[in-house]
Design brief:
By secondary structure, the chain is α+β, with helices and mostly antiparallel strands. It has four helices and ten strands; from the N terminus they run αβαββββαββαβββ. A hairpin with a 4-residue loop joins strand 6 and strand 7.
Length: 271
């Protein structure tokens, strides 16, 4: 059915569009994945552990590997991944259901109106004698399409936000582990305290560090140079240029290590 200008035709098109969204809501709009580049020598299990924190996520449906042509490769080929490809966190794909198109008969016998004169037919559409608009159909079309559209936008936003939070938390936990590793002298001790402040909408990750019980490091008052050196060392060790650090500062008893999550930069491997 082709949508023309008459009001009733537009309403019918809106109804068909709404029914189509109800049949395949997951395929109506595209989902943007969060991706990271594959390093040399990494296998699929190591890649899943680096990106998601657990190698058992390799064959989860939301963990996918994309080749250089931006196509997702089958999981049966994960033993042949290459550097430069990307590991992505995506929402599970739901197969779309095809909807048969509604055709309109082109050849229709013109009805006869009072007086014996047939109504004129133009391009298969009967031109009405009087302009009559059924407002019920207009309201029904809007009431059906608008909630589905709003629901789909909100669903995609929440899925995107969840994927970004997974990447942010994983990076922050890796940073804290590497920071405290040289400070541990006994297995049971806690050399520092750590907190996280995550803002996926603003693309901000704040890692808050404070000395453990009986310790004085980290702090900016008398160990600024050492602290700045450790932050740069760990950033280079993690090797994830999707996160860019900002200057350190203090908040109450905490040292704040702020990061910006640059999901839009092409060189980071994020689509």
């Amino acid at each position: 059915m082709s949508c023309g200008f008459p009001i009733k035709v537009i309403v019918r098109c809106a109804l068909l569009f709404g029914l189509g969204l109800a049949a395949f809501p997951s395929s109506a709009f595209s989902q943007t994945p969060v991706c990271h580049p594959i390093r040399g020598g990494e296998n699929a299990s190591q890649l899943a552990r680096r990106v998601t924190g657990n190698s058992r996520n390799t064959y989860q449906p939301w963990f996918q590997i994309m080749d250089a042509s931006s196509r997702f490769i089958p999981k049966s080929q994960y033993d042949r991944i290459r550097p430069g490809w990307r590991a992505c966190i995506v929402k599970e794909t739901v197969q779309s259901v095809s909807v048969q198109s509604v055709t309109r008969p082109e050849n229709r016998e013109a009805p006869v109106v009072a007086g014996g004169s047939p109504r004129p037919v133009v391009a298969g559409v009967i031109r009405p004698v009087a302009n009559s608009v059924d407002l019920t159909l207009v309201w029904l079309g809007g009431a059906l399409v608008l909630p589905l559209f709003v629901w789909k936008v909100a669903d995609d936003y929440m899925a995107r936000r969840k994927a970004v939070l997974i990447v942010m938390r994983h990076y922050a936990h890796r940073f804290v582990r590497e920071f405290e590793r040289p400070l541990i002298h006994q297995p049971a001790e806690l050399p520092l305290r750590a907190r996280l402040r995550l803002s996926p909408v603003r693309g901000r990750v704040d890692i808050l560090l404070a000395p453990g019980e009986g310790r004085r490091y980290p702090n900016l008052s008398d160990h600024r140079k050492n602290l700045e050196y450790d932050v740069v060392r760990i950033i280079r060790l993690l090797g994830d240029d999707s996160f860019v650090s900002d200057p350190l500062y203090t908040h109450e008893d905490w040292v704040v290590v702020p990061f910006r999550f640059n999901v839009g930069q092409k060189h980071t491997g994020v689509s």
